[in-house]
Design brief:
Distance between the termini: 38 Å
Number of helices: 14
Number of strands: 2
């Protein structure tokens, strides 16, 4: 039997998680057949936006071990890239949306070369500072970004169901991209860096270059999600980059299962739908989910997906035979 660190074990585990991700996405595809409420379809669309952010952040934190506090900031940059191109230069969405991934990706490349030589709290603090600086610049650049009034973004689709399937297709594409990356040698390098960065460097892995690639892809995913969200909401504002938005993303990944492919998908949908349900009993969502993060981080580090996997493993394990005493 392969050990948990054996490449074959990791590859098989990843393939299993991808299959379950496809099952989960297929289940989401059936939702509009039974849910006709525009409100709840909108809630699920926004949950898929957060799922894309969660997948991007999980690639960096869960699989590479690099804790960034800027996923919401890069989503905001992607949204403003699309909005500014359309508002000032009348660039169509079919160009603006790809640029929503390219521009944050390039910014992530430059920032990554600087901050990914740091580790631990220094990396988190640096990305937090960057996120707040970018948000404040956008907030105060009234002549260019219209400040806190936000910018209108042209919509891609008028139909709510059409937007639902557009987001679902984008989420599936992002998940497949991360799966392909993790199946490649680069993916194994990322996980080696997470488990033992010094050991990975001693084996000839260029750790800074590999971490920067993960940072670039993570930022591009978050930027693309932000551009897509802007086209759905028809508006982008500095609120997209608030630290509380990053906190929601972290909660989704931790509750769903950090370092897994299917965990962020499940966590994003459950947390966001749950937050909408909690609105009826008062604005206590962040308190509830902060407590859940503490509980899961302390007692269930593998999240909901890890709990489900352990439950299935226990059911499959045969009970030990009881020897009868000889008479």
């Amino acid at each position: 039997m392969d050990s948990p660190q054996h490449p074959n074990f990791l590859r098989n585990k990843l393939t299993q998680e991808m299959r379950l991700s496809l099952v989960f996405l297929a289940a989401l595809a059936l939702v509009p057949l039974t849910v006709s409420s525009p409100y709840w379809l909108g809630v699920l669309i926004v949950s898929m936006y957060f799922a894309m952010l969660s997948v991007g952040w999980n690639l960096l934190a869960g699989y590479t071990g690099q804790f960034s506090l800027a996923p919401a900031a890069f989503a905001m940059l992607g949204g403003y890239t699309t909005a500014l191109l359309a508002y000032h230069w009348k660039v169509p969405l079919w160009i603006g949306l790809p640029m929503a991934a390219v521009v944050p990706g390039l910014i992530g490349l430059v920032l990554g070369r600087i901050v990914l030589r740091l580790s631990g709290p220094y990396l988190a603090l640096t990305t937090l500072s960057f996120a707040e600086i970018v948000r404040l610049v956008i907030y105060n650049s009234i002549n260019f970004t219209r400040g806190d009034q936000g910018l209108n973004v042209p919509g891609m689709l008028e139909n709510r169901v059409g937007n639902y399937y557009l987001f679902l297709a984008a989420l599936a594409a992002v998940t497949a991209l991360v799966f392909a990356l993790l199946r490649s040698p680069t993916g194994r390098f990322l996980q080696a860096i997470r488990d033992d960065e010094i050991g990975a460097a001693s084996r000839g892995i260029d750790t800074v270059r590999t971490k920067t690639l993960a940072f670039l892809i993570s930022c591009a995913i978050c930027g693309f999600a932000g551009g897509l969200y802007g086209s759905f909401a028809r508006l982008v504002s500095p609120e997209l980059g608030l630290l509380s938005q990053t906190g929601i993303v972290i909660a989704m990944v931790v509750i769903g299962g950090m370092g897994t492919l299917v965990g962020p998908l499940i966590g994003a949908v459950l947390v966001y739908v749950g937050s909408e349900l909690l609105r009826e009993v008062g604005n206590i969502q962040m308190i509830v989910f902060a407590l859940l993060v503490i509980v899961f981080a302390r007692f269930f580090s593998e999240g909901l997906w890890g709990l489900a996997r352990q439950a299935v493993a226990r059911r499959r394990t045969p009970a030990p035979a009881v020897a009868k005493d000889e008479e």
